[in-house]
Amino acid sequence: MNDSADLLKALKIDRNAPAPREPRRALLYGAAVAAVVLLAVLVGWLVFGGRGGPEVRTATVVAIGSGNAPASVLDATGYVVARRMATVSAKVTGKVREVLIEEGQRVAAGEVMATLDPVDAVAGRDLAAAQLSAARSQVAGAQARFEEAEASARRLQGLVAQQLVSQAQYDQTVAERDALRANLVTARRNVEVAADQLAIADNSVDNTVVRAPFAGVVIAKAAQPGEMISPLSAGGGFTRTGIGTIVDMDSLEVEVDVGESYIGRVKPEMPVEATLNAYPDWQIPGEVIAIIPTADRGKATVKVRIALHAKDERIVPDMGVRVSFLETARPASAEEVPRGVLVPAAAIVKRDGSDVAFTVVDTDDEGGTVEQRTLELGRTLGDDREVTSGLAGGEKVVLEPAADLQDGTRVRLAQPATD
């Protein structure tokens, strides 16, 4: 009986005993975890929020007259080509001593592109100069001998008349004089030949300098110092045929292949709109230069040349381009010509009593900078407003700009939602 009572007493809970303390190590661990989480949140805000500025939604301004442009009657694809493009080579075979061009460099007409080793050419010129000097000295000797023979002939002529010398002696003197006259003529002709040879030798030295035939941009550098170059490619694969290739960027145009079934729609001087594959949002105006009067039997196409009305560094040879041939539109009267652009009403706010909008400029991969524009408004067209001054077609405006958005603020562009 006593044993059972003792067992029950041992199982009794003592409610007056103090609660056990939580280990201090657990408290320190929890504090460290909280600090790490807070630091991660702060770094995330700096990386994704603080550096790029506030995130904004944008819309593109649309020119009111863009919908009234002439309709396309035919679309075709082609490439940008240059009417003047040349791979420049030397006129003679030689070793390249110096190359003065690089890809992308602009060169003027006559500018030196490269030089060849001129040792042989200079030696040939020195030899030609020495031969010219020798020929001139021979002329001086022949001239002196001829003058002496001429004087002897004149003296003997008087003596023959007085029968003091024989006729045979006089005839011999005259023959010698005539021979010396012929020698003098030959010597003078040799001087002319030697002078011509010196000019040729000078030209050979000049041929070791490779110059640009016209102004343009270097698109390829084909040779290096120490390599052999020849216009005839002598020596097989170890000999270059050119120094580099230059293109006259002012001669760029577009060539497209139009199917035989549709070539009747294309006319000379027909307006076109060209769009480069690299810049799909850039429409370049142009016109048809000519329709090449021959067809490609294999592709059943006719080649059409097109002139571009824009000169821009972004247009380079061999770029792919899509061309829309436009119908000739009737000229609109002054009252019919639309003006201004359409802007979403949500992009227009009041600042200091004026209607303004914020455009995004200097954009990059992370965002851009806003620029405040003062607007002159026109009609209300649904959810859009007509803006007659302050904005141009194609610009991006901020939708629902915040009250604290200021001119020059750095912003991030919101990414479009995807399904």
Automatic annotation (TrEMBL):
<dbReference type="Pfam" id="PF25954">
    <property type="entry name" value="Beta-barrel_RND_2"/>
</dbReference>
<comment type="similarity">
    <text>Belongs to the membrane fusion protein (MFP) (TC 8.A.1) family.</text>
</comment>
<keyword id="KW-1133">Transmembrane helix</keyword>
<feature type="domain" description="Multidrug resistance protein MdtA-like barrel-sandwich hybrid">
    <location>
        <begin position="84"/>
        <end position="230"/>
    </location>
</feature>
<feature type="transmembrane region" description="Helical">
    <location>
        <begin position="26"/>
        <end position="48"/>
    </location>
</feature>
<keyword id="KW-0472">Membrane</keyword>
<keyword id="KW-0812">Transmembrane</keyword>
<feature type="coiled-coil region">
    <location>
        <begin position="132"/>
        <end position="197"/>
    </location>
</feature>
<dbReference type="InterPro" id="IPR058625">
    <property type="entry name" value="MdtA-like_BSH"/>
</dbReference>
<feature type="domain" description="CusB-like beta-barrel">
    <location>
        <begin position="254"/>
        <end position="325"/>
    </location>
</feature>
<keyword id="KW-0175">Coiled coil</keyword>
<dbReference type="Pfam" id="PF25989">
    <property type="entry name" value="YknX_C"/>
</dbReference>
<dbReference type="InterPro" id="IPR006143">
    <property type="entry name" value="RND_pump_MFP"/>
</dbReference>
<feature type="domain" description="YknX-like C-terminal permuted SH3-like">
    <location>
        <begin position="342"/>
        <end position="412"/>
    </location>
</feature>
<dbReference type="Pfam" id="PF25917">
    <property type="entry name" value="BSH_RND"/>
</dbReference>
<dbReference type="InterPro" id="IPR058792">
    <property type="entry name" value="Beta-barrel_RND_2"/>
</dbReference>
<protein>
    <submittedName>
        <fullName>Multidrug efflux pump subunit AcrA</fullName>
    </submittedName>
</protein>
<dbReference type="InterPro" id="IPR058637">
    <property type="entry name" value="YknX-like_C"/>
</dbReference>
